[in-house]
Amino acid sequence: MIRNGKKQKSEDGFSLIELLATLAVLSVILLIAVPVFTGSIAEAEQEVCEANRAMLRSIMKWSFP
């Protein structure tokens, strides 16, 4: 934008430094959150398998005394 013969800096957006800082913060958060999340999924799958085995044992004992 030119006003009175001088260029003025437009303040319409984010600077490269601001975008890079945001990316850095988000990547740190993801580095912490992803392993925790994937670990909890593996634990849940293990618990489901154990519950299914217990259910099958119960059915087998009830069906075939």
Structural classification: mainly alpha
How many beta-strand elements?
Answer: 2
**N-to-C order of helices and strands:** EEH
Spatial separation of the terminal alpha carbons: 88 Å
- State which percent range the strand residues make up: 5-15%
Q: Could you report the average pLDDT, rounded to the nearest whole number?
A: 85
Main sheet specs: 2 strands, antiparallel
Q: In one word, what is the shape?
A: rod-shaped
Strand order of the largest sheet: 1-2
| Helical run tally | 1
Helix fraction bin: over 70%
CA gyration radius, whole angstroms: 29 Å
Low-pLDDT runs: none
Features:
1 helix; 6% strand; two-stranded antiparallel sheet; mainly alpha; 65 residues; single chain
Question: What's the short version?
Answer:
The chain has 65 residues and is mostly helical. The protein is built from one helix and two strands.
Describe the structure.
With 65 residues, this protein is mostly helical. The protein has a domain at 33-65. It is 74% helix and 6% strand. It has one helix at 16-63; strands at residues 2-3, 6-7. It has a two-stranded antiparallel ribbon. Strand 1 and strand 2 form a beta hairpin. It starts with a strand and ends with a helix.
